[in-house]
Amino acid sequence: LANAELATAVQKYLESKKSPLAPYADQIILEPNWQQALGITFVESNFCAKAANMNCGSVGVAPGHKQWKRFENHFQGFQAVTKLLNKPLYKDKYNTCKKKMGVYVVPGSLNWLRGCEKVEREMSVLVNTVNEKYGLSTPTTGIEVALAK
Hints:
Radius of gyration: 15 Å
Number of strands: 0
């Protein structure tokens, strides 16, 4: 029930932002680092609404670059971000939006940072609201959530 309610809350949030990711909310919440990944997709492509080649997180430098990634759907573009964030470099060392400045986004900007952190906080509020409703513990470190099975 908690998963379904969180997925619905995330879907409504994404629908309010006119994001093509909205239909994938039930899959999004199962991805590692999904809250921060949504923050990144917000600042990189307006939650995938403006994603070239459905590359929601601008993975691979820029369109036209040989490392630019192309995806068949927006969820695959979102997953590319979560997979990247799960690599040791980002998971262990550059694990906050602020630490990603100059690494994930070069050089980065205050607007990029504020946008990433804002969405990450908004997702944390959704998670905490659902966790409180179902009497689930909310982690005190990091932003990951223990969802009910």
